[in-house]
Specification:
Keywords: Signal. With about 190 residues, this protein is mainly α. The protein is built from 4 helices and 5 strands. The longest helix has about 30 residues. The two termini are about 35 Å apart.
């Protein structure tokens, strides 16, 4: 009986930990508060001319195959959302630079989640108005995606892409954590 309990417990723990990393692919990690990316999550081989670290992320529509009719109305618009994803097979990291760069790469992913929350917030506002046109959601998405890229650039410039002052990186981490907390209402459970 104890062995059966132990086996069931281990299976549950394994399935829960696997869910903590993957959305729908072995190469994609959905952003989660409790999970920090690790060097082992970066699967792309770093080429000689590549930077020492690169985090490939996307903010994806979910469900991924949005059905839009000929009047530009989204079928099931109430369930439309976005997820911040880390793409393991497109991200690289030079081993040995964990101390210097891993925190910077995590903040890069955190910024993606921050803007995913901003997009979700705007989507909720559109849903409250019963807006069904895909163009309206797509427009909000594109504007906030551009703002995300600009914000990422500001972060990289201010921290010298992780090579600058550790204090600067810490300041950004505190700032992003606060902004994530301010938008906690728009966090989603892993999909």
């Amino acid at each position: 009986m104890q062995k059966l309990f132990l086996i069931c417990f281990l299976v549950i723990i394994h399935s829960v930990s696997a869910q903590d990393r993957n959305v729908d692919s072995e190469n994609v990690i959905q952003w989660q508060e409790a999970y920090r990316i690790e060097v082992s999550d970066f699967k792309k081989k770093r080429l000689p001319n590549d930077s020492y670290a690169f985090t490939a992320y996307k903010i994806e529509f979910y469900p991924s195959e949005v059905i839009v009719d000929m009047n530009d109305y989204i079928q099931g618009y109430e369930s439309l959302t976005v997820v911040a994803e880390f793409h393991m097979d497109k991200s690289h990291f030079e081993a040995g630079y964990e101390k210097d760069l891993l925190k910077h790469e995590q903040i890069t992913f955190d910024i993606a989640e921050l803007f995913a929350r901003k997009i979700r917030k705007r989507f909720e506002e559109l849903k409250q108005k019963e807006e069904k046109r895909f163009a309206m959601y797509n427009n909000e998405y594109r504007q906030l995606w551009k703002a995300c890229l600009k914000y990422q650039q500001e972060f990289n410039n201010d921290t010298n892409s992780g090579w600058g002052s550790p204090k600067k990186v810490e300041e950004w981490q505190s700032r992003i954590n606060q902004e994530l907390m301010d938008l906690k209402k728009y966090a989603i459970k892993p999909i």
